[in-house]
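Could you join me in thinking about how sequence relates to backbone shape in a protein? Would you write everything just below, so we can both look at the same thing?
***
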Amino acid sequence: MIINVLPLVLGIVLLAIYAFDKILYLVVFFTPLSLQLSEMIPGLPFDMSLPTEPLLFGILLIFIMKYILTGQFDRNIMKHPVTLAIYFSLFWILVTSLTSTMPIVSIKFFLSRLWFVVGFYLITAKIFESSKKMELYIWLYTIPLMIVIFYSTYRHLGYGLWDKQAAHFVVNPFYNDHTSYGAVIAMYLPFLFGFSFTKIYSPGIRMFVRIALGVLMMGLILSYARAAWLGMLAALAIWVIIRLKIKFRPLFVTFLVLLSLIFVFQNQILMYLERNNTESSANLADHLSSVSNISSDASNLERINRWSCAIRMFEDKPIFGYGPGTYMFNYAPYQLKAERTIISTNSANRGNAHSEYLGPLAESGFLGIISFLILIITILYTAIHAYSRTQDKRLKTLLMSSLLGLITYAIHGTMNNFLDTDKLSVPFWGFAAIIVAIDISTRKSLNTEDITGNKV
């Protein structure tokens, strides 16, 4: 058996050494179709995504060896503000891994974050020397994602398409949760909208894109992922603001006014929310309305329970936290009897902290959430400024789509956390790489070739 597999392993190693881009494309393509080791061999003390995470670990090792031997990598990428923000985030994850209550768990978390960043951000940003490679990166995930959507929809038909409960498990074994499935669809939809209405593409390509757009829209609706729906609405609002060229100052003032009103009328708002008893259901309008139900919706109440635990954990360990990746092992004693729900557990088998913001707060302390916020803000700031400088329609479409895709996840991240998985790391870090590659290109001096291959 091992002898039969050796040629394949050797081929992959050679490909990784001499053609980083090809092996990376392979990883991106297989990510939507990857399976958890625990699905195939239950009861193991560890878990990983196959075949993607072993390949990413190999890419990380080869990258480190190449860098040690040559000491060379694109300085523009290595010194970019987004990269510096990533350095800070990784540094603090490493520090809090060393001070962790469960060092082995935290080091594994750090390593997985490192191979996601190296593979899907550093190497990818270097590969993105042309817009066509960026588009290839998008399609390499979108096409297998469409296969998963057809698979889950076919399974959903067996229970009735409007069976909300079925949406929770029909995406297995490719996605372990309907919310992560909805989140990734929402991240790719802005690209398909952009590609379908950009006239630089041929009518045939635009027709295919619109078919793909319809498939992803179907997947998003049938995912019943409310956070993903809200992320799409937020992305639409940001798109309108950018298209209308609304200045930052009035937006910031409006935000401060709204924040002040929420603070002043917080009791009245809480009373209103408590009166909302709309349960999540197959009715799409009711399902979206149930987002603000904090009186009887078990899913919302469980999120509040997890968030409250994260805050109490932070209060106990505000500097270093409990350690990256350890929330699920430590939150149980912090649950209050009054906040537990019918779906509460002591093992976090229904998700971790349910927040990309409060999770780091509990696991890595105050600087954990600060480092993540700095990263998000730096990426979005870079995207907006690069968009204002870019004249090429193709690049503007890619920039806007990357920005909106990341915004959907920034909103989704208030309710769920999936950046410790390959499924969401491919779009998150890949979209950041697109933004950085285009930003670097637009900053190049005169008499150099831009990213489209034209002289500037």
